[in-house]
Amino acid sequence: MQTLNEIEDLIKLISKLPGLGPRSARRIVLKLINNRDELVKPMANALVQVYKNIKRCGLCGSLKSNLNGCKNCENLKEKFNQICVVEDIADQWSIENSNIFKGYFHILGGTLSSVGQKKEALLISSLVNRVSNEKIEEVILATSATVEGQTTAYYIQDSLKTLNVKVTKLAQGLPVGGEIENLDDGTLFSAFKNRSKLNSNSD
């Protein structure tokens, strides 16, 4: 098979994306090459803009633009009294698209047991500060129903125990090992509606 270094490098990069392997990456690369004016050039420009302007917010963990700031943090005019804590951006988007929850989000960026993940990177201290400063009445822990997700949820609960805030978690109807981004709207709605209050250790 004919090989060109530039193409092989691109195939290797694309095959690292979720759900894609070398064979799928090859098909994508061929599609790009055959549509270079319609796809390659605008995609390259879009990637450059994302690289330059889009970053993770150091306060809430959501994505923010250098041009427009963090919409999640700057939405204080709504005066929400709830924060929904999720593991990653995909979870936030899934919940937002379902229109189930109206409030602030706090995106951890992983779990405590993630490989190479440090507690500082999860912005848990930032979450505690937000709850204290923004008059939050309820923190909804929407971590996945995995061992890592549940461990992280209980660590967050312990971190919030000195604050006068209600801490709840999504209903146990979530499938064991299930990730938020893969749930349908009906399951998410049921999980939010039937969320349970976690016992406080500060009583």
Word description of this protein:
By secondary structure, this protein is α/β, with parallel strands linked by helices. α1 (5-14) crosses α2 (22-34) and α2 packs across α3 (36-53). The radius of gyration is 20 Å and the shape is elongated. The model has no long low-confidence stretch (mean pLDDT 82). It has helices at 5-14, 22-34, 36-53, 89-98, 124-133, 147-159, 185-193, and strands spanning 54-56, 63-65, 82-86, 104-107, 138-141, 166-169, 196-197. The protein contains 7 helices and 7 strands, in the order αααβββαβαβαβαβ. It has 2 domains: 5-54, RecR Domain 1 (Helicase, Ruva Protein, domain 3), CATH 1.10.8.420; 63-197, Dna Topoisomerase Vi A Subunit, Chain: A, domain 2 (3-Layer(aba) Sandwich). The chain has a 5-stranded mixed β-sheet. A two-stranded antiparallel ribbon has the order 1-2.
Oligomer: single chain
Q: Report strand %.
A: 5-15%
Largest sheet: 5 strands, mixed
Low-confidence stretches: none
By CATH reckoning, the class of the largest domain would read Alpha Beta
Number of domains: 2
Summary, kept brief:
This protein is an alpha/beta fold.
Structural descriptors:
two-stranded antiparallel ribbon, alpha/beta, Dna Topoisomerase Vi A Subunit, Chain: A, domain 2, 12% strand, 2 domains, 7 helices, five-stranded mixed β-sheet, Helicase, Ruva Protein, domain 3, 203 residues
Summarize the topology.
Blueprint: H1 5-14, H2 22-34, H3 36-53, E1 54-56, E2 63-65, E3 82-86, H4 89-98, E4 104-107, H5 124-133, E5 138-141, H6 147-159, E6 166-169, H7 185-193, E7 196-197
Helix pairs in contact: 1-2, 2-3
